[in-house]
Design a protein that fits this description.
Blueprint (H helix, E strand, L loop, with lengths): L10 E4 L9 E3 L4 H6 L11 E5 L2 E5 L4 E4 L5 E4 L1 H7 L5
Antiparallel strand pairs: 1-5, 2-3, 3-4, 5-6
Length: 89
């Protein structure tokens, strides 16, 4: 079976840095932990986390923060956002 997503209008803000959206918190890992785990180019200070009903999700610069119809916030990658949403008047 195939299904189409119901048409709804959501609020969304593109996130680039801490302070862009109140639901995004500072990423809790230190640089030392990230490097020890094998991610030398990964800078947690460029990232944030957002608490969702499904748990914590990483937010990267350029991600969209969507406010759902029930008021929860969740991140969406730019390419998925572009394929799923269009501007509403």
């Amino acid at each position: 079976m195939k299904f189409r997503k119901k048409t709804i209008v959501v609020e969304a803000t593109q996130w680039f840095k801490m302070g862009d959206h109140p639901a995004v918190e500072q990423f809790p890992w230190s640089r030392a932990v990230i490097k020890a785990e094998g991610y030398p180019d990964y800078d947690p200070w460029d990232r944030g986390i957002i608490k969702t009903l499904e748990g914590d999700h990483e937010v990267c610069p350029g991600d969209w923060i969507i406010t759902s119809v029930k008021g929860e916030h969740y991140p969406c990658k730019p390419d998925i956002f572009e394929m799923t949403y269009e501007a509403a008047e």
